[in-house]
Amino acid sequence: MASLLNVHMFQSISTEDAVTNFPKPFLLSAYGVNNKYTTMDILRRWMYIFENALDKGVRVIGFSTDADNKYLSAMRLASNFFASLPNFKSDKHQHAFRINIPKDWTWFYLNTSQLFLFFQDPVHIVTKWRNRLLSSTADLCLGNDKISIVHLENLINDNTYTKLDHSLAKSDINPKDRQNYKSCVRLISDDVLSLLCDNVDTKGTFIYLTLLKMIVKAYIDKSTNIGERIESAWCVVFVCRLWWTWLEKTSTRNSSKNSQTTSDRKNQINKYFITRPAYMSVELNAHNLLYLVLLVKQQQLPKQALINIHLFNSQPCESLFRDARALSSTFSTNINFTVKNFIGRAQKLSILNQMKYNQSENDLCFPIHHKQKHEHSSTSIDQLNEIDRLDIQQLISNAYDQAIDIVQHSKICDTLNQFNINSLNDVSQYIHDILKKNSRLINYSFRTENDTAEEFGLDEENDDNDVETYAPDQPIDEFLFDYPNDTMNDDEEDILNSKKSDFNGIRIFDNINPDLKRSYFKVKINESIKYLHKQSACWLLSNNITKLSNDRLSRVMQQTANNN
């Protein structure tokens, strides 16, 4: 009996130049599964979807999932990305994409012929990146620079700074809260990065979080243009390659001196580097992003394929599950539902989305909460027209130069120069040889579970797949309560100090509407009179961010305990 539910969502690409109402994703299929399916089962399912869609005149460009090992292996096998599937040559398919790659692009590992494009969900990559920083088994080190969560703990506990300076809470660095994307956004804020950059001892953590911010900019941020996406994505890749090359060279040199075994050397690399799924996801996403751009440049796909590229992820699946659960009451004891019940709920959601999408034609107007009225700028057709003049080689060169600047303080380049590795081609060729040598991914059905964990000598973490996401425009100080009955005494002022004068995202104003003065405190910040909203005050004074449990059974038990 199947205990799990698997769904496929379909995101269409608009063919209009000016997209004002982008098509919503819809449910393609839902079925019960267990955890015994293999990578080959996943590949066959993808091929079944592709061929049936092709019969209907629909060309499936690619698939996106979280960084689950089986799906990651399936993506590598289908892409022939340091993997081989002798009996399943998807790149030989008559409808496969084919692009022209210059021979001097030694840094590009993807084959020129691909049937599908693949994107690992960037939200999952971001949370995995954060979880590695919080891991108790990791001892991340980038050259001479130490990467540690202690640097953030000291920042939070430092009385020199207030929460107005960094916006962090202790719950943001809680190792048990593994799938909190919103805490990742707070960790990469400009305020936090600025404070870490000012301290030479926290330079490694600053670099690590800077790379995390580049991942968000490349795949999640809606306002990023195509050139910036390519440059940010490949800068992260090049830093990871430099980092891994440095670890390989230093560990080899140390193992020869200390007579270390190969297993000990791999464990040393595992301890100082990011996890294998995180690294492979970063590589795959950067390659597929550039492949997609080249398809558009070579006129095999319309330019509209690059509009809203941030939607190439698996978040619609996560959202559908949350919305389906939301159709139950908050304290309902029905914590699970059957496939039939799920499909019924999905149909209700589909009808609602269809009504919202066509509300202008039907003279319907659904109310929109003021927090969701913020308009996000996305890639416009005018920006896409510049893609023909986009110099890919120059963008890659800029990305590598930026990567060198990022690791300059760590002295990694000095070590690599001793081994005659001093250019982009040298680093890329070295990593290519390691991946090709260590790759044992030939056919998943013949591989054991241990082989997956040992491949490339990089460890992995088993993260939950239920990622908790938040609206990117939601202010960081929003809570679900207010205190309308409190009064304000104009003669009393609370004194606060901060290292900055700009408080974007926090409701602090110089002047307010007198009719709303009951909702504000009058405070003095840096010798200036300000008005602080009471919800923002609650956020400012809280060390931990409390939230309602995602487990309905836990909510029911908690409610019962409170009533007793």
Keywords for this entry:
alpha+beta, 12 strands, two-stranded antiparallel ribbon, four-stranded mixed beta sheet, 564 residues
What this model shows, in words?
This protein has helices spanning 39-55, 69-79, 122-134, 150-157, 163-166, 181-187, 190-197, 203-219, 226-258, 262-272, 276-297, 315-326, 339-357, 381-384, 392-407, 412-418, 424-438, 449-454, 534-541, 552-563; strands at 4-10, 26-33, 62-65, 97-98, 113-114, 117-120, 141-142, 145-146, 494-496, 508-509, 520-525, 528-533. The chain has a domain at 475-564. The strands form five sheets. It has a four-stranded mixed sheet with strand order 9-11-12-10. A two-stranded antiparallel ribbon has the order 1-2. A two-stranded parallel ribbon has the order 3-6. 44% of the residues lie in helices and 9% in strands. 33% of the residues are buried. It is globular, with a radius of gyration of 25 Å. With 564 residues, the protein is an alpha+beta fold.
What is the topological layout?
Layout (H helix, E strand, L loop, with lengths): L3 E7 L15 E8 L5 H17 L6 E4 L3 H11 L17 E2 L14 E2 L2 E4 L1 H13 L6 E2 L2 E2 L3 H8 L5 H4 L14 H7 L2 H8 L5 H17 L6 H33 L3 H11 L3 H22 L17 H12 L12 H19 L23 H4 L7 H16 L4 H7 L5 H15 L10 H6 L39 E3 L11 E2 L10 E6 L2 E6 H8 L10 H12 L1
Parallel strand pairs: 3-6, 9-11
Antiparallel strand pairs: 1-2, 4-5, 7-8, 10-12, 11-12
Largest sheet: 4 strands, mixed
Helix fraction, binned, reads: 40-55%
N-to-C terminal Cα separation, in Å? Answer: 38 Å
Give the overall shape, derived from the CA principal axes. Answer: globular
Given helix and strand content, the structural type is: alpha+beta
Sequence stretches where pLDDT stays below 50 over 5 or more residues = 444-454, 456-491
Strands side by side in the biggest sheet: 9-11-12-10
Number of helices: 20
**What percent of residues are in strands?**
5-15%
Rounded to an integer, what's the Rg over CA atoms?
25 Å
Q: What is the mean predicted local confidence, pLDDT?
A: 79
Number of separate strands: 12
